[in-house]
Task: inverse folding
């Protein structure tokens, strides 16, 4: 209803430029995706099971040498690294292993391929679609067929040690770096399933079965499962704390060398859960940390677990990332690394990786 004497003027329509129209369309698309996530639980970023996806770019570009931890060195498995240059020889070996698996399992590649094609739509849902959009259903199914059969056959060869069926030795399966191919598909997978930490058998036997999207989740679970001791303060420790000028809620710590100089010793904690870090205050202090076995695969495993924790659809507590940040605060020099080797870390420590990666 118009008021008496009211005059309404029609404003001329402003013609938006192509740029503005494009930006408005993107804004509407972003709103649509946000509303879809609110109403569709399957599209939520808070997934209990993360998608199989590429490493976040901000992690691979964080330091010049980080990218090498996420690239296959000998064999590429799965669609994310399929067709990588420099791995042509092992691609031939994969086909040999896959062919032997099909032959000795009493089936045919046609039957297996058809079964995979029947499930290919569902299998796609386990991947970030942007990472596999270059493959149509047939190409993706064939990758699953060859790589899956090759892995299963290689695991069997590794378990029984029967390489005579290939008429070759393990170190001749690939043309470079003896035994790396065997280790890439057999030892790495078996260790990932079983864990490479010094296992707490009691905890492992009592843990309930859990489904995992891929091996990284299983490996991460092994590193973050087990006993967690609480920090403690004795009566004398409380008296010393109360007499100090530092605020009660203000706690600082330095490198391993600085901690030792201030009277704090480092001891291995019970179990091997990376979260099992505690501080015990008496006349002097005692920092307890889990034991960790380190070898030439540790850097790659830890960096890939960090990449998993950083995936936007994997809701987690950043347990491995927090541990590495804490370790980085303790390690400032090579001397700090030596101290950790003596007290909490077994096997040969890779000083360069620890200092560069967490420092």
Result:
């Amino acid at each position: 209803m118009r008021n008496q004497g009211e005059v309404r003027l029609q404003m001329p329509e402003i013609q938006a430029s192509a740029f503005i129209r494009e930006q408005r369309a993107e804004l509407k698309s972003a709103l649509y995706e946000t509303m879809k996530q609110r109403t569709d639980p399957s599209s939520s970023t808070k997934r209990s099971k993360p998608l199989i996806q590429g490493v976040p770019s901000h992690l691979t570009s964080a330091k010049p040498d980080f990218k090498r931890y996420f690239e296959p060195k000998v064999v590429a498995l799965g669609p994310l690294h399929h067709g990588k240059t420099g791995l042509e020889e092992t691609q031939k070996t994969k086909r040999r292993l896959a062919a032997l698996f099909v032959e000795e399992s009493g089936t045919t590649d046609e039957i297996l391929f058809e079964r995979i094609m029947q499930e290919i739509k569902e299998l796609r849902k386990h991947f970030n679609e942007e990472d596999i959009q270059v493959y149509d259903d047939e190409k993706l199914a064939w990758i699953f067929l060859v790589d899956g059969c090759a892995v299963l056959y290689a695991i069997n060869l590794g378990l029984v040690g029967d390489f005579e069926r290939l008429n070759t030795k393990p170190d001749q399966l690939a043309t470079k770096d003896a035994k790396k191919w065997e280790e890439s598909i057999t030892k790495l997978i078996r260790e990932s399933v079983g864990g490479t930490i010094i296992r707490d058998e009691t905890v492992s036997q009592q843990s309930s079965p859990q489904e995992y999207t891929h091996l990284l989740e299983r490996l991460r679970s092994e590193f973050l499962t087990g006993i967690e001791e609480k920090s403690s303060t004795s009566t004398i420790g409380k008296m010393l704390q109360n007499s100090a000028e530092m605020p009660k809620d203000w706690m600082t710590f330095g490198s391993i060398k600085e901690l030792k100089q201030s009277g704090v010793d480092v001891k291995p904690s019970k179990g091997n859960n990376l979260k099992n870090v505690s501080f015990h205050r008496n006349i002097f202090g005692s920092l307890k940390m889990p034991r960790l076995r380190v070898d030439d695969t540790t850097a790659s495993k830890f960096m890939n677990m960090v990449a998993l924790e950083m995936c936007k659809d994997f809701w987690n507590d950043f347990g491995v990332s927090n541990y590495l940040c804490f370790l980085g605060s303790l390690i400032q020099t090579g001397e700090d690394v030596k101290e950790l080797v003596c007290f909490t870390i077994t096997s040969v420590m890779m000083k360069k990786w620890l200092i560069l990666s967490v420092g």
Notes: The beta strands are 232-233, 264-268, 278-281, 285-289, 292-293, 345-346. Residues 171-206, 346-353 have pLDDT under 50 and may be disordered.
